[in-house]
Amino acid sequence: MRINAMRKVQGVLALALGLSWMVAAAAQAQDGPWYGGYAADLPAGAVAAIEVDLTQFAGQPTGLADFRLTGRTNGTCPETMHPEFCDELALRSARQAQGDASALAVRVFGVRLERDVAHIAFAFADRGEMRLLELRPGARGYQMAVYHPARGLDMRTTAWRRAHPCQTTRCPPDPRIEALRRNPYPNLGLLADVGFAESFPLTLDRIAEAHRDRRPPAPSTPSGLPDMSGIGGTWRILDDAGREVGLLAMRLRDREVTGRGVFYNRPGLPPRAEVQPMSQATAPDRVQVEFYVHNAGGGDTHGGSLVMAMPVRDGRIRASWGKYGQWLPVTLYRDGPFDANRIPWSETVTPPKPQPPKPQPPKPQPPEPKPDLFRGAEFMVDTPSRSRSVLEVHAARAISSVVVGRLEPGTMGIRVLECTRGLTIETFRRPQVAGNEKALRGGWCEIEAGRVKGWVQAFHLALVGYQGWVPPQPKPEPQLRDVPFRVKALPQGRDTVPVHVARAISSNLAGGLGADARGIEVTECEPRLTLRQFRQPKDPANARILEKAWCAVRLGKVKGWAQAKYLTPQR
């Protein structure tokens, strides 16, 4: 009896603990309307699965976003996704399959949650290209869209809402949740600027057009054959980034393309695989060539298709090469006549190493002209030395040097070209000053008087006239706004440099600057700073000022004040 009673008590306690945890989870789930998980409705064989978990407390305009991207090797590209986005996910999925756990990792740079729309600014962890994910309630579930800063719409599909993971399993303590509860506004990040989302081309939708361009053309009837003249020859194959990805030698005989080729490190083929074009299907404006991989152990396997736009124009062919629905846009450049011997038939084919540019000898710079410090000034010969009745003009700055001319006392119209010891017009205007008199007695000046040109002692010259010419001033030091800045370091425990609306850490956030932010415009600093102080941060005096200073910064839509110690001029 006692044992049964104890078991009943233990069961009641366990039930109470379970109910208390479920109540706490349910309370957290009800905190914000966006609290939950959202999964993109993509086909089962799609190149990747995309899920987002949102954490939000009631009344807060932001929250936490956690991405879960699951890649699939040899996955298909759905019609709702841009082919270039598919290519990127396919390459990252292949890296993940090879053990690179960070290939599909995502960093979140801002979350803004409104009543009828949610925006998330994110980027892949190893690439600084910012993306925007948008969620909107729809008639059937939610609408999920991903935008690229250049391509515009990368994906638009239905998303289904499910329970947050913390509602179904017990989540470990997360310090981000407590920080979100205390102060949610830092989580706005880049989206603190309400115009950040509008900086993306939200109306640009070329998904259907891109799929149509990549779709292999259907074989045509013999009456619609394209003009294939000029297809024969050796072609270098470059992708849209300018990298050489292959070499192909093609020959046209009786409207059949044959030859030999090699592609470098193409997904779907072994590394450095050799391919041989065997046959083609034609369309009125395109030629499709099928490739077969040559295996050293015998037997050939299908290596993909090359769809080329005809006719050949200016020695170039625009084409797409791919396999299993994964297409790579390429351009073929004619590199000579057909020559199969240029393509080695072995298992050690390697892509050509780019040749470094030959160093160019520096161009000789013309010597900078010496400043004419005595322009507009007229001198005369003052009293010469007692031992001589004339002033001797020497070839060099020494009494022992050759005498090249003689000038009588009182000779006028003498032009001074330059002087030693830093002598200037002011030195000759005030020779009585002790320092000036000493400099004049030890200095030499190069003069020109008629046909006589040489050096004389400065003490024997007197200033007669001066037209008030001002010597050229040194070029002013560039101002802060003339030089782009970049992020030098990040605050401890943060992945962005905070940008505030005022010069105080306690002020509201206006946005953030990522670790790879460049081209930052700095308009002013308080206290006043110069470029020299930024470029010499190890100087103790500069270090003390930079530690306390704030600078007005601007990068895109982000504008506000950031601490100077996290910034540095770009080189």
Descriptive report:
- The protein folds into four domains: 26-209, no CATH class; 231-342, Lipocalin, CATH 2.40.128; 377-466, SH3 type barrels (Roll); 480-569, Roll (SH3 type barrels), CATH 2.30.30.40.
- The chain is 16% helix and 36% strand.
- The chain has helices at 2-29, 83-97, 165-168, 175-182, 207-214, 425-429, 434-442, 531-535, 540-548; strands spanning 36-40, 48-55, 64-71, 106-113, 118-124, 131-137, 142-148, 152-162, 233-239, 244-253, 256-263, 274-282, 286-294, 300-309, 316-323, 326-334, 377-381, 391-394, 403-407, 415-419, 444-449, 452-457, 461-466, 485-487, 496-500, 509-514, 518-526, 550-555, 558-563, 567-569.
- The strands form seven sheets. An eight-stranded antiparallel sheet has the order 3-2-1-8-7-6-5-4. Strands 9-10-11-12-13-14-15-16 form an eight-stranded antiparallel β-barrel.
- Strand 15 and strand 16 (326-334) form a beta hairpin.
- The chain starts with a helix and ends with a strand.
